């Protein structure tokens, strides 16, 4: 996994939820959500019910979603929650809200 800090994120490298979704899981793994959030449980909490607000929290939630997809075998690429996370991440990067 190649991690990328928030301030180094480029909008053209973040999957567009209204476009081609291939690569979203690879992007999700540019942060180690378990480590950054402090635990698997905290990462799961951030992914639950839209609790994530800050860019780092949103990225941790996306990471957890990717891990959940892998472990369940379900395809989340059409999930409204996934699309919402990507929209919020993209908005934060555009606004340069890197917290």
How would you describe the overall organization of this protein?
Helices cover 52% and strands 0% of the residues. The chain has 99 residues and is an all-alpha fold. It is built from five helices and no strands. It has one domain (22-94). It has helices spanning 24-28, 33-37, 40-47, 55-72, 80-94. The chain is globular, with a radius of gyration of 12 Å.
Chart the SSEs and their pairings.
Layout (H helix, E strand, L loop, with lengths): L23 H5 L4 H5 L2 H8 L7 H18 L7 H15 L5
- Structural domain count: 1
Please summarize the sheet with the most strands.
none
Mean pLDDT: 91
How much helicity do the residues have?
40-55%
Query: Ranges with pLDDT <50 over ≥5 residues?
Result: none
Q: Shape from CA axes?
A: globular
Helix/strand class: mainly alpha
Q: What is Rg?
A: 12 Å
Could you tell me the number of beta strands?
Answer: 0
| Terminal CA distance | 21 Å
Compute the number of helices: 5
Short structural summary:
The chain has five helices and no strands. By secondary structure, it is an all-alpha fold. Helix 3 (40-47) packs across helix 4 (55-72) and helix 4 runs antiparallel to helix 5 (80-94).
Features:
mainly alpha, single chain, 5 helices, 99 residues
């Amino acid at each position: 996994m190649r991690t990328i800090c928030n301030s180094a994120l480029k909008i053209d490298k973040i999957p567009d939820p209204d476009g081609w979704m291939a690569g979203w899981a690879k992007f999700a793994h540019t942060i180690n959500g378990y480590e950054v959030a402090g635990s698997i449980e905290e990462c799961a909490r951030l992914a639950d019910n839209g609790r994530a607000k800050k860019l780092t929290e949103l990225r941790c939630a996306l990471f957890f979603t990717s891990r959940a997809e892998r472990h369940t075998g379900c395809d989340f690429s059409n999930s409204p929650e996934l699309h919402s996370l990507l929209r919020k991440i993209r908005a934060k990067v555009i606004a340069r809200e890197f917290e």
